[in-house]
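Let us practice reading a record.
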Amino acid sequence: MRPFRLGRIVATPAALAAIEAAGGPSVSAALLRRHLAGDWGDLDTEDLDANHRALNDGARLLSAYVLPTGERVWIITEADRSATTFLLPADY
């Protein structure tokens, strides 16, 4: 997989609360490692294909994971690679 920059790592308040309830920093670190490694989590074929194209054309990258609590969290790295955000789907 082609490496990419994460930029500044941020999170919405709701995502922070969900991650804390699921185990805190170790959970967020593990998810961030998966995102950076190209393990995009629970995405459909269309989103997976978009991520593979984005590695070459510099578009946005999306990962979707289910936390141990059952809550779903997204990680989005912006197209310009200036920031990576943890958020809940409801935050979008």
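A brief commentary: The radius of gyration is 12 Å.
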